[in-house]
Amino acid sequence: MKKLALLLSLLLASFSNGQTEKKSLLWKISGNGLTKESYLFGTIHISCDASLPKKVLTALDKTEQLCLELDMDDPNMQLEMMSKMMMRDGVTIQSLMSAEDFKLVDDFFKKQSGFSLKMMNTVKPFALSAMLYPKMLDCPMQSYETELMKVAKAQNEETIGLETFSEQLAVFDAIPYQTQVNELIKTAKSDLDRDKKELQEMLDLYKTEDVEALIKYTEKSDNELTSGFMDELLNNRNSNWIERIEKIAKDKPTFFGVGAAHLGGQKGVIKLLQQKGYKVEAVF
Predict the structure, then answer these.
(1) Domains in the chain: how many in total?
(2) Which one of 91, 160, 249, 265 is at 20 to 30 Å from 65 when CA atoms are compared?
(3) Where is the protein localized (predicted)?
(4) Do 67 and 241 contact (CB within 8 A), yes or no?
């Protein structure tokens, strides 16, 4: 279930001081009353190599707790996930597709997972899409969040979350089921080729540490779940996080790890923190 939560997060990219013009995935947060520095790191939720750079390990040593998008150690997350995975009001996957498309997607899921779509007919479409992400990599899946949690555990530090699982799921509930299903059909029709190509392009961009290029790429994505709902997936959440980041960072120096697409842009976390008076500097 933790693995699924990580995958869902994936579905779920001129600045003051010129800071976001610099290419880095790691940013130091200071000033505005903070007694100690905190750090902000842009992750990518699935990868072939999630090894943590030296600068990230150094920042983890300097901080006293880890804060991810979700508290992955929350014992209630599995129960919460299971209770909110089904569509409401009797809607089914089959009712949202033509018979021809349902057969296409059903055959596709049998091929990719060994399961018939009929067995998951009431599961929310975005969750079905998230289940396919490991298939988009030509390697065993790794996660930066998992690696960050390993370090926090080794340092006997707590891992907390910026939002609850219910809040994250509500993001996808704001996207019409039909839109979610349409993307699932596109994935099946391309036999994952479209999605593999886009993921690889994202991974290549991630390696450049260019957070501005990442958000621009996200805005132009062929996947309407991403490009068509930027406010729901990124901007609104960024805005909601700022007050929480402030409170957490003032309590103790914290290492924040969130999806890299949340960092850049005029509505990104870096810019929003700068607007609140914090000094946010790229770490090289």
Answers:
(1) 1
(2) 265
(3) Membrane
(4) no
